[in-house]
Predict the structure.
Amino acid sequence: MTAADLTLPLAHGLGGVRDLPVPGWLFYWGASIVLVVSFVALWALWQRPLLAEASRGRPVPRLEAIVWSTALRVVLGAGSFALLVLVFLTAAIGDTSPDDNLAPRFVFVYFWLGVPALSALFGNVWSALSPWRAAADAAAWMSERTGARWEAPFAYPERWGRWPGAVLLLAFAALELAYWDNTNPRAIAVAIVLYSLVTWLAMLAFGRDRWTSNGEGFAVYFGLLARIAPFGEREGSLVARWPFTGLANLDARPGTLAFIAVMLGSVAFDGFSQTDYWAVDVRAKLTREVIERSPTLADVVGGLVALAGLLLMVALVALAYIVAMKIAARAVRYEGDLTDSFLGSLVPIALAYVVAHYFSFLVRESQYLAIYVSDPFGFGWDLFGTADVVPRINVLAPQTIWYVQVAALVVGHVAGLVLAHDKAVELFESPRKAAISQYAMLALMVVYTVAGLWLLSR
């Protein structure tokens, strides 16, 4: 097996199944029926808003004393920053083979797929793990000890909202899905430097908290997924709550729809880019004329085509949601704009797409971590005697993968329906009117579900 064979999945981690255990149409109809039955049950049984109160949770002071301790945060922050430095060094001076160097797999697998899983399970762990925030906090602490307290010179513009974070998340998605040499360790080193400079300079300009909650793309992304977790924060205290209830009070500041559209659209495009239609009928045809004259130019053209496809997919996700909200408002003769009200219902779908598309890939690729622990630079080291570990490629059965994918999509969309219904009964005076307002949302969820299953089966 060549290095290219091993590194190609890093760019596209989709773990699809072509030989389905039953006909594909049966899964499509089954998932759609589950959504319709859930919708009817919500209409009949859910008569008043419940999730906003449930999101308050109950304090867990003993757990808070441990997980929010200064000592633990210092240790985690220092370790995370050291890991950032290590990954940068492996990318900058390590072996140039993506298969032998820690950096590509760390960035596109362990970080990009592992942290979302931790966030959805345990809450906003990124607040303690972010190496950029840890470095900024350390710099602020040292400056305060010398009496040179730093005040941000600029006020963060409220109209920006989460737009900077959406742009940075889109830039990372473009690196992963559109750049033709994305697993090149040297390219990853440059990306780390650029992102770090933007983050630290923005923190200096606008303040650590303001930039982290709005402009630091990964912090915003992981923070939204953390609202799914059974642990959250209320008035400075750690609380335990029902899963998904943290999304009931999502603040829809400017740029939130764009951010969530990037979350959904990037994963959807990752799947679509691996279909025969995209690879053969679109990308291959557009690059065929230039590939013989200049392979480099063909790479550039292919990258631009992929970038256009990514942007189009993100736009389609946002447009479908906006149209559904317009239809919902007209159905109940609502004079305001419903777009911001139901954004929280899209976040479980974004997580469902991540789980469905990447969980098997994460399980398989995590086996390589033992190798990189002993030889992160690809220099032929064997520091801990694990450099010769042979990963199992088929660690999960194909049918197991497909059933988990279907379950993730259905659960994510049902959770979205529950969140949307709860918000509807909060906004409208009658359960009947709330249900009517959600017809368009139900149709949107069915479309998202069937499209997700279709992409997985391709």
